Amino acid sequence: MAQAQTPSAIAAPRSPYARRKTTRGNFELYSWVFMRASGVVLLVLVFGHLFVNLMVGEGVHAIDFAFVGGKWSSPFWQVWDLLMLWLAMFHGTNGVRTVVNDYAQRDSTRGVLKSLLYLASAIVVILGTLVIFTFNPCPPGAPAELLPSICFPN
Amino acid sequence: MTAVLENPATESPKPEVGAVPSFEVTLRIRRYNPESEHGEESTWDEFTVTAHGTDRVLDALHMIKWEQDGSLTFRRSCAHGVCGSDAMRINGRNRLACKTLLKDVNPDKPITVEPIKGLPVVKDLVVDMEPFFASYREIMPFLITSGNEPTRERLQSAEDRERFDDTTKCILCAACTSSCPVFWTDGQYFGPAAIVNAHRFIFDSRDEGATQRLEILNDKEGVWRCRTTFNCTEACPRGIEVTKAIQEVKRAMITRAF
């Protein structure tokens, strides 16, 4: 015979739903392709970055203000770091966006989480871009031994 | 050499020749009946039946319904793995009750039987399949052609037929869609079954509606929500390579877009 057990923590199973509306468009397609493409490019950028910073020459011990200042006075490294920043941020933000879409069950939760996400990544991207372009490797009044050699042209 | 029985003394009551050994098995079934005293709450019921090695989970459910509790409700039609009515969550995995032998799901411990996840439960193991079929209808699961009807069959080469052979096997049991964690979240995702049935026509050389179907599935809730967790491929009682089919539809969309 059936022995009815006390229900512990089983959610009420009836929750009807229907597809709300069609949301066709190429956005998710492009986002999917972007994740793959940026992932491959980031592999090159990140490991190139790590190799140059940590292994070439004196390696990790060479990193100081002068090292970074010297690197960012070259347009090549500016573009490299800018690409790395933007791709990493958009790749990561897009990844977290899909995680939020998958796990948030209510639209309001989803909206709040995604707003916070976009705000945070916008701050990082804008601040980072600003630093890369407005960085002054030779701040006036700084002690000379901390500055890169390019600050002393003669 | 002749085979010798090792311990003839321990064999007390000689079993009948050809008899199938029987064993006791307990089924732990998730019940839901809003008209009962439990109301909107679902409960677990345990039933013990005597089963044989040849019995399937469906046979045990029949024994319970016919001999112990007539109120136990589940769906089944053909009872032989063709109609796709009795998909349920057995020991945490989606399977067809009519294709799962009790001895294959460890009858030493209670076997849990639940309705498939993600679809609204109507009663006990019966779920409302309507959202599932709505997605299926959306991808237009019928032949789309233009021009005059031919006066004979639409012939197709064996290679062209082979291209979509795997996805013709679908029986719409919803085991795949209701095993998909993305579908569980809010049920907005089209689900593997709808994509498999779109695949069946998209890659059919006689069909001319591929563009429309790709358009429909190129949706926020379409193929791009697939995270390739392979739950669907594992759940499919027909052995369809569901995730592969979804990836092929994705590829068709990308080659179309670029």
Automatic annotation (TrEMBL), chain A:
Pfam families: Sdh_cyt. InterPro entries: SQR/QFR_C/D (IPR034804), SuccDH_FuR_B_TM-su (IPR000701). One of its GO terms (molecular function) is metal ion binding. It comes from the Bacteria. One of its GO terms (cellular component) is membrane. It is found in: Membrane. Keywords: Heme, Iron, Membrane, Metal-binding, Transmembrane, Transmembrane helix. The chain crosses the membrane at residues 29-56, 76-96, 116-135. This is Succinate dehydrogenase / fumarate reductase membrane anchor subunit. Gene3D superfamilies: Fumarate reductase/succinate dehydrogenase, transmembrane subunit.
From TrEMBL, chain B:
Residues 23-119 form the 2Fe-2S ferredoxin-type domain. InterPro entries: 2Fe-2S_ferredoxin-like_sf, 2Fe-2S_ferredoxin-type, 4Fe4S_Fe-S-bd, 4Fe4S_Fe_S_CS, Beta-grasp_dom_sf, Helical_ferredxn, SDH/FRD_Iron-Sulfur, Succ_DH/fum_Rdtase_Fe-S. One of its GO terms (molecular function) is 2 iron, 2 sulfur cluster binding. One of its GO terms (biological process) is respiratory electron transport chain. Pfam families: Fer2_3, Fer4_8. CDD domains: fer2. Keywords: 2Fe-2S, 3Fe-4S, 4Fe-4S, Iron, Iron-sulfur, Metal-binding, Oxidoreductase, Tricarboxylic acid cycle. Its EC number is 1.3.5.1. Binds 1 [4Fe-4S] cluster. The keyword Iron applies. The keyword Nuclease does not apply. It catalyses: a menaquinone + succinate = a menaquinol + fumarate. Its cofactor is [4Fe-4S] cluster; [3Fe-4S] cluster; [2Fe-2S] cluster. It comes from the Bacteria. Residues 160-182 form the 4Fe-4S ferredoxin-type domain. Pathway: Carbohydrate metabolism; tricarboxylic acid cycle. Belongs to the succinate dehydrogenase/fumarate reductase iron-sulfur protein family. This is Fumarate reductase iron-sulfur subunit. It comes from Krasilnikoviella flava.
